[in-house]
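Internal tracking record. Fields below are filled automatically when a chain is submitted to the structure queue. Please do not edit lines marked as system-generated. If the sequence contains nonstandard residues, flag them in the REMARKS field before resubmitting.
Queue: standard
Priority: normal
Entity type: single polypeptide chain
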Amino acid sequence: MGHDSRPEPPFTSTVVAEGFDRWSPPLHKEFDANVRNDQLGQNLLKETGLVSVWETRLEPGERLPVHRHEQDYTWIALTDGHARQHSGDGASREITFVRGQTLHFRIDEGHHHLHDLKNIGDEPLSFLTVETKTS
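SYSTEM-GENERATED OUTPUT FOLLOWS
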């Protein structure tokens, strides 16, 4: 059997703006329009009563539209890369992904995470998102 031969790289996320600073009117509009968008990636690979597995591959400059997470989820970076994310709390972040890196997000009952994601790197950015269904 295999084993984890590499230590998990640290997650790097830097807040570059807060309070909706530098958000364009079209971005505000998209957040309002997509407050219920549950398409967590570009391609739904598998859906069962327990999980949904989404695949996303963003070319440089390409963006995943605003979407809503209501269940716990994990993402797995399939490539190294850099992205910018706007979140429903008004923060903008720049994120560095390292191939093989994973991160789990817990969504408390009655809450959600609303965000977009844009590849700001020079290479394609690819990852899987695995949503754990609780209901």
